[in-house]
Amino acid sequence: MNDGGLHNRKEQEKSQKQSKPSKFRSKSDDFALAIAKVAIAQVCESVGFQGSQHSALETLSDIIVRYIYSVGKTANFNANLAGRAEANVFDVIQGLEELGSGLGFAGGSDFDRCVANSVIARDIIHFIGDADDIPFAYDVPRFPLVKEWKEMESLWGKGEQPPGEHIPSWLPAFPDPDTYAARLSVGNETNSISSGEKTELARVERKMERSLLNLQQRFARNGNEGGSSNYGGYAGRARVASESNPYLAAPLHFGEKEVEVSPVVLPAKLSNEVALRNPVPENCDMGNRVSVLETFAPAIEGMTSGLCDLDNGQKKVVYNQSVHFKIGIGKKSFGTAPYFNSQNEDLEKIASWFRNDNEKDDKKRKAEKILKESIESSQKPTQL
Amino acid sequence: MNHNPQSSDGKHDDDSTLSDFLGSLMDYTPTIPDELVEHYLAKSGFQCPDVRLIRLVAVATQKFVAEVASDALQHCKARQAAVVKDKRDKQQKDKRLILTMDDLSKSLREYGVNVKHQEYFADSPSTGMDPASRDE
User: Between chains, do B110 and A67 touch, taking CB under 8 Å as contact?
Assistant: First the structure.
């Protein structure tokens, strides 16, 4: 008995799935169906009903929608049969006759009846004369809406020359070269960082800051406006804004180090230590973070030792924060830059750490990575 | 051949009837909105820039709905009259005329539309059975 029941249920589910994606039941048609329900409820009210069951109203509106569809289909067929693309009043009346032929109408059996003289048309005229004029309850806009194609997205729209003959001009424009060219230059310069030149490091930092800030601002702007326009001026303004407002400053990239001095209470540090024992792995964006974490491995070591030293009698706790720049859709807002100040003495520390980077063991690096993750996860609620 | 003079006059009359008819269509505002009808006609491939044809379809649809609804109303009233014969107090209580699936399916059956409605839904095949005979 149970097996039979299960079999029936599966069949029912299958049949339900098959009947669901009909063209009158799809998600895109919900609006039209809702309007139809309102209209039909109004007609029922005019006939004399004071209420109706939900299922009855839905069924009736579904049937009416199919009625309109079949009238249109038949009329179109008749027009095509006569060699026309556009339908005529005669096509429509013939379509209505076809749909009403199940019930029958007077004169349906006449072989020489004229469509213009059809009973159907007369019935409709009588109906118009008898029935009250009840307009639809709501103001219905034209649907479906037709969105205008934004011409400015394409290269051709922007008036730029495509940077190669193989690239057609109707493709969207390339992003600003700063956003991807800077990365290449950084790749070349990581080898020179280990030489320990402070000025060179600072120059690289500033260049990366600028490019990342531009990219960040650009994404924020595109998210708001959806278009790209004068880019240089905005970047300049953004730079000025970043100098005045620390929250608008560029996020850190690998090779950079900013130390934040903030009056954080000790319980945060203690919770860090507690969290250290139970590392929480993070799932998202591991690819982007791993490289950053590896570079910060010496930083983490220095930090944890530093924390213990500054423990007693100090209200300020120095700790390092790193900001990961995430491109894409995430639950947190991208480009959050916590409060930080750059100090010259820290640059020396950074340089020294990068010198030791190559000597680290893999195991140590992993341990420090976990440490870093746990500290970050515990500090999440304090960030923006 | 005898039909010809008559039919030509008849054709003129018919044409004028039709054009009058289409003109009168524009005076009447059907309850079913034009945009809805246009949407579904466009879906079916019906192409016509003439608004009067869309009104024609809308009015025809409204007539169809009115017919189905009035048939269902008659069924509903007949049922209420049959019940009232048994109990007099139902007359005061059941003044409300409600469109039910039952009445609707009966009236639609005459128009060639078969609407079958589930009587009830059960959780499992053994719902409502005696606990002694139920399979565990």
Answer: no
